[in-house]
Specification:
- The two termini are 46 Å apart.
- Helices cover 44% and strands 15% of the residues.
- It has 24 helices and 17 strands.
- The strands form four sheets. It has a seven-stranded parallel β-sheet, covered by helices on one side.
- Helix 22 links the parallel strand 16 and strand 17.
- It is an alpha/beta fold.
- The chain folds into four domains: 150 residues, DNA polymerase beta, N-terminal domain-like (DNA polymerase, domain 1), CATH 1.10.150.110; 90 residues, Beta Polymerase, domain 2, CATH 3.30.460; 75 residues, 2-Layer Sandwich (Beta Polymerase, domain 3); 235 residues, Alpha-Beta Barrel (TIM Barrel), CATH 3.20.20.140.
- Bound molecules: 2'-deoxyguanosine-5'-triphosphate and calcium ion (2 copies).
- 2'-deoxyguanosine-5'-triphosphate binds next to helix 11, helix 13 and helix 14.
Length: 571
Amino acid sequence: MNNRQVAEVFENIADLLEVKGEISFKVRAYRRAAQAIDHLPQDIAQLSREDKLRTVPGVGEAIARKIQELVDTGRLEYYEKLRAEFPDGVLKLMEVPTVGPRIAARLHKELGITSVDALEQAILAGQVAALPRLGEKTAEKILKSIQSLRRKDQRIPLGQALPVVEGIMAALRGTPGLYTLAPAGSLRRLAETVGDVDLMGTAEDPARVLDAFARLPLVRQVLVQGPKKVSVLVDGGLQVDLRLVEPDSFGSLIQYFTGSKQHNIMLREWANRKGLSLSEYGITHLDTQELEKLATEEAFYQRLGLQYIPPELREGTTEVELAEAGRLPRLVELGDIAGDLHVHSNWSDGHASLEEMALAAQRRGYQYVALTDHSAGRGIAHGLNEERRRQQLAELRALDQRLPGIRILSGMEVDIRADGSLDCPDELMAQSDVVVAAVHSAMGQDRDRMTARVMAAMRSPHVDIVAHPTCRLLGERDPVDIDLEAVFQAALETGTALEINAMPPRLDLKDVHARRARDLGVKLVISTDSHSPDQLEFMSYGVGVARRAWCRPEDILNTRPLPEFLARLRL
Ligand code: DGT
Ligand code: CA
Ligand code: CA
C-alpha cells in the first residue's frame, strides 16, 4: 500500500467516527495522522518495516499499530468493523461534495437517509430544509451538488465536447484583458469521454472575463459564480468551469487541473520523496515551507527534474518513472501522418465523389490516400459488385494520373461475413492496393465465434488491415465480444495491420488496447473512415488515441513515406 492509500483509510475512519458522533479529539487524531501520512516524504510501508512509524508527526502507539496491520495485511480489522456499522449508502452520502460527516450523520440519524437518491427525495420534499440549523440554503446547495454529481456520471464523448469547447474559446478570445485561455482536465488529455470541462486562464481583469463567459449565448445556466471561477451548464448539458489565476502561477494551476488524479497522486508522492510538496499554487519546499510559483507547465516539470510529460500520458501508469529516466517516447503527431487509408466516396455510402475526397486529402498535404468503398455484400452501403468496381477502378486510376503530388491508392472495405468468409471475390481484392476488412453484421456472436471470424479474415492473403476491430459506438453500442489478445497474436503471425479508427464515436481500437497492440509490436494504422471531405479532419482524434497508447511515429504505418508504407503493409 502506498502513502495515499493508507492516508485514505485514516480519512475514512475519521469521517465514520464523526458520523458516529465520537469525541472530537479522537476524530482529529485520525485526520492529523492521515494528513501527515499524505505529506510524508518517505514511504510509509518502509518506515513500518524499519519500526520508525513513531517518528511521523501525529502517529502515536495506537495508530502506529494500525498502520503496521494495514501495510502488512492490506486490511485493517478496526476499519472493517467500523464500516460494517453503517449501511454502505452513508459513506456514499459523503461523496456528495457538500455533505460532510456531520451532515451525513444527521441525515442518517434524524431522517433515516442511507442513499443519495433518498437524500434527493428528502430535499425535494422539504424535509432537509426543515432540520434545525440546516435550512433552505444548505438543502439547495446539496441538491445542486447531487445534480452535478449525476451529470458527471453521464460522460460526454470527446467528439461532442471538443467542438463546443473550441467554440467557447473562439468566442472568448477577443475579450479585452484576457491573456491566456486553455483547456485542462480529461479534455486536454484527450480521454474518449469527459465528465466536465475545465478551462484555465489568466487575465488582467478576471471579473470581466468571467462575466463574458457567463453571458455567452450557449450558456443555459450559471451554477456557481465567484471572483476567480465560474461554472456553467451549456446547451447539450455539458458543464464547463473557467478558473483564472495570476500569470505567475498558471503553470502549476494547469498542471494540477489537467490531472489525471492518478497522475497527480503519483507525482505528488514522487515529489514528497524529494522533500517537495505540490499543489495548484506551486511547489513547496518542505524544509523551508517556501512556495515556488511556476508560470508554465514546462517549468513545473523541469523544476522537478522530469522530462515534460505530454497530457495524453498523464494517466498514472509508468510516465513519472520514465520521465525521471528521460525515456519518454517521442509521440506521434498529426503532422507525421502521411496518408489516410479508409475513405469512402459516393460509389458506396459516401457523400462526395472520388475526386472531391482525393482533393481533400491532397489539401491536407498527404502523400497518399486509399479510397476504400464497400464491397458488394454491404447491401445497405450500396457496395460495389464486379462490374461497378471495374468502372470505379478506371476512374481511380485516371484520377491518380491527373492529381499531382498525391498517390491515389485503390482500396476496398470488404465485409467479414458471419462465418469469417469475405464478401468479395479474390481477384477483385488482388487488384486493390489496400484491402480493409471489417465486421458490420451479426455483432451478437459469442466470443469464440467472433474471434475465429476475425482471425479467419486475417488469414486471407489479401486482407491488409482490420478496421474498427471491436465495432463499438461510444454511448450507443457496446464492443463485440472478442478475444483481442488472440487477434493481436494473429495480427503478428499474419502481418495484418489493425486500425485505430478515428471517427469520434468509434475510436476503435481504443487507447488501452492500442497500447497493448503497440507493446506487442502489432502493425497499427490510423484512419478516419471518412464519408465526406470534412471528415478527414477526424484524423486528429485518431492521433489522440495513438498518443494515449504511447505510439511513436514508427509504430504507425501511415506515417511512413509511400514506398516504405507499401513494402511494410505487404510484409
Ligand atoms: P472528468 O471531468 O471526470 O472527465 O475527469 P477530469 O480528469 O477532468 O477530472 P475533474 O474534472 O474532476 O478534475 C480535473 C483535474 O483536477 C483532475 O484530472 C485532477 C485534478 N483533481 C481533481 N480532484 C482531485 C483530487 O482530489 N486530488 C488530486 N490530486 N487531483 C484532483
Ligand atoms: Ca473534467
Ligand atoms: Ca472539473
